[in-house]
Amino acid sequence: MSVTLITGASSGIGAELARQLAAAGEDLALCARRTDRLDDLRTEILAAQPGRRVEVRALDVTDDAAVFAVFRAFAADFGTIDRVVVNAGLGKGAPVGTGRFDANRATAYTNVIGALAQTEAATELFRAQKRGHLVLISSMSAMRGMPKKVTVYAATKAFVAHLGEGIRGELLGEPGLDIDVSVILPGYIRSEMNDKVKKPMPFMVDTVTGTRAIAAAIQARKPYARVPAWPWRPMGTAMRHLPLKVVRRLT
Ligand SMILES: NC(=O)c1ccc[n+]([C@@H]2O[C@H](COP(=O)([O-])OP(=O)(O)OC[C@H]3O[C@@H](n4cnc5c(N)ncnc54)[C@H](OP(=O)(O)O)[C@@H]3O)[C@@H](O)[C@H]2O)c1
Asked: Which residues cross the membrane (predicted)?
């Protein structure tokens, strides 16, 4: 039996990942701020997979103390947590210097400090267990600096990707620990984060399809995955080298 903790499980990728991992036989610890959504999701998953165990808790990832308390409470519920998916994220933003520091700050706080708190709490649990799988949801936007509303969001996702790689490097020097780190960089996947964007987004896939690619990379414990592989694997390589005036058109 394997237990996966998913943050930001009340909508989009997090909720769909919960469905797909439960169908694959995993038990779940789910959290987010909207607990009514989590309760509904729990009911839905248990109706489809009656053998599974699903626990839910309220969590605002910008509340540092709550992140540690909730992760420890889930660990106490299940005895062990095999995997943590740091998925909660915010996509608010405005071009830098246009008077919306509030929106950019909220995104930076949630996606950087919130992700760091989750990662600290998860890695503490894994160090105590001497095993575990840390999954960080970054974004293809982390590949390069991005213009418009996405500048701060993309920078936060670059932080997340480097955080994961740094921890993986740290753990390489600690042979007694069996802890894997996966950094996942999704391309455009339909979710609440982008459902109000009117402009067509390149290579957008629906939530189920996109999450299937994420789940496969997680289950394969890939250290680093751009998903869906087509077109985002080659696109990532191109993004690294293309001139900024071309890259900026991706947003
Ligand atoms: N969709 C895409 O195209 C795409 C692409 C690349 C990466 N991603 C990443 O995928 C992850 C999931 O996003 P999504 O696309 O599924 O968007 P979404 O539908 O908006 O889901 C975001 C989730 O994060 C949670 N969340 C936001 N702020 C939170 C906070 N302060 N505390 C706790 N939970 C919080 C939300 O739950 P509550 O509001 O209930 O708290 C919600 O469950 C994010 O990290 C996002 O950056 C998405």
From this structure: none
